[in-house]
Automatic annotation (TrEMBL), chains A, B:
This is Dihydroxyacetone kinase subunit DhaK. NCBIfam families: dhaK1. One of its GO terms (molecular function) is phosphoenolpyruvate-glycerone phosphotransferase activity. Residues 5-330 form the DhaK domain. Pfam families: Dak1. It comes from Streptomyces katrae. Its EC number is 2.7.1.121.
Amino acid sequence: MLINSPDTVVSDALRGMAAAHPELDVDVERQVVLRRDARAGGRVGLVSGGGSGHEPLHAGFVGPGMLSAACAGAVFTSPVPDQMLHAAGAVDAGQGVLFVVKNYTGDVLNFQMAAELAEEDGLRVERVLVDDDVAVTDSLYTAGRRGTGGTLFVEKIAGAAAEEGAPLERVAALARRVNDSSRSFGVALSACTTPAKGSPTFDLPDGELELGVGIHGEPGRERRAMMSSREIAEVAVAAVLDDLAEAGPPAGPVLLLVNGMGATPLLELYGFHAEVAAALSARGVEVARALVGNYVTSLDMAGCSVTVCRADEELLRLWDAPVRTAALRWGC
Amino acid sequence: MLINSPDTVVSDALRGMAAAHPELDVDVERQVVLRRDARAGGRVGLVSGGGSGHEPLHAGFVGPGMLSAACAGAVFTSPVPDQMLHAAGAVDAGQGVLFVVKNYTGDVLNFQMAAELAEEDGLRVERVLVDDDVAVTDSLYTAGRRGTGGTLFVEKIAGAAAEEGAPLERVAALARRVNDSSRSFGVALSACTTPAKGSPTFDLPDGELELGVGIHGEPGRERRAMMSSREIAEVAVAAVLDDLAEAGPPAGPVLLLVNGMGATPLLELYGFHAEVAAALSARGVEVARALVGNYVTSLDMAGCSVTVCRADEELLRLWDAPVRTAALRWGC
């Protein structure tokens, strides 16, 4: 691994973010990344965070049009309420703060405690839980579904609404609507290696893959012999669309994220995207916008995930709105 | 690997690019990616290309402010003169075309042949060879130094000049100046696996690294026991700065690319960037702009490279100019 020590991997990365992105206010000690002008616009603050190892999520999404702040925990470990409380106080401009929380037990408890403490300080706080992963109902780290790729859609669209000056209730309602409209399914072609352990977190033999894997290498639905990119796309698309169909009749176009887990070459990921797009088209689903890349990762895991989000005109408009962060940037 | 077949990996990826980027004109059959408005502005055309497996280089850099077209070869194999000739003809708006060629024997010969054929067709063509890698003088695939991360600086800055309407001679002179001002050094922490071979292209045991590696896994300067991120940064920075010093006295600030080889997590890469920035600072070198990410990759190789480019005000201005491509995007 390209590290100094397992103990410094997160603080080293934050020092690197500070050096590379002078437009961000990186508090290395507290492990909080803030946009410099978070309070300037009198906007609703948007705070997220989670265990490290999923970069660019979340710190790479801090900036105009997306998050106001991100709290970084240790690798695959929730940040603590103190960080969230500090972030909320630092970004609150009197319009309240929305916590975007991936549905993992540690994150849920810590963000809840932070929300209670912030409210005692007189802040208005709303929370949205992201639980878009259809693969499993419960998991090693979760009561209920896991939050994965849908987080990117929630943070982008809620961030655009906040940037426009929408009030807290509306930003929160939009975030929940995006989560309710999003479904994800992931596949691992290799395990990931955490700095602390130094060896793969689970055993996935060459020539096998894990369908429905999470973003910490936690088990998925089933293990199979290696499949082609086309077969994987068909399984993933079927899983997300079948689940989405249960929530209501198909309606309109979708936002699509074809996400790499970290170690999958972009050459392969674009080839996979071709198959995902074809599988969606075969089922009559129109892709309004597509994003292909490594956005919600699992350290050095090889693999991919598919996230779709049903998008009406309002969500499309907010998706297209300008964003300027380390990892997502357009329109400004 | 996330593929259908080794035989279709490049065409599958190009189909995926076409699906994800409607703003690009992707010729899947010819394996050429063009910007849609390449001829509209009456600008100099900028054409590059090379073996696949280094994505987002080069197709991810096609668009306003950067390349007019990119030709994709098979994995780690030069594209052929027919592709380059087609690209040149498709982007030429009467102002001539610049070929940006990484210094590998196959690319050099094929771009040279294409230039001769294009000139027979009445096009004006200039070529610039990129040979920024200080690690080795000759290599398995090279007479002279290899072209690696410096290619990104050449394509961005020459592309900005072309976008502004600079004539061919000036765009070519700028491209050569950027190459002459750039130095790179790469390190492999693991080998890469090509689709055709299906197993690592060279043997790099756990706990060892290869200093001065190329972007095809070709051998570097030496193999060593694993080093810390800080130690690797010091070796890489010393290598590029010592070589740069031979070319003249240090002058002004630098552009810095801290590049991942494909499978290095962004968490680790940002930590490495902190050490590179510190090592440059310790030697009195000011970093004017920094870019951190996976830009010039080697499939699923774990590792990193450091590229610095001495930049005067003109190069800085062109670096900052708007760019809108799949992989680099700012200012528009």
